[in-house]
Design brief:
Blueprint (H helix, E strand, L loop, with lengths): L1 H39 L3 H33 L6
Length: 82
């Protein structure tokens, strides 16, 4: 049962790492597109929604890092047997 838990935990960490990497790519792409749109248009709504979207992606990255840290602390905590 311990090996199954370790492989499940490892798979969860891999999925979290892949998601964080993907979100980092999305945020880089959003910043580049935001700068291009900011230079090309005068539509204020579009210019305002891009930073809001970037902040949303940053918040998701923060939550994933927090979840990953919580899982690592939980894994390192020794089990108490009664």
């Amino acid at each position: 049962m311990g090996d199954n838990f370790k492989s499940k935990n490892s798979l969860n960490n891999k999925l979290i790492n892949i998601t964080i990497f993907t979100l980092c790519l999305v945020i880089i792409f959003a910043i580049i597109v935001g700068v291009i749109i900011w230079q090309k248009t005068d539509n204020l709504k579009l210019i305002i929604f891009i930073p809001i979207g970037i902040l949303g992606v940053l918040f998701n990255i923060y939550l994933l890092f927090k979840e990953k840290d919580k899982r690592e602390k939980q894994r390192k905590k020794p089990c108490r047997r009664i």
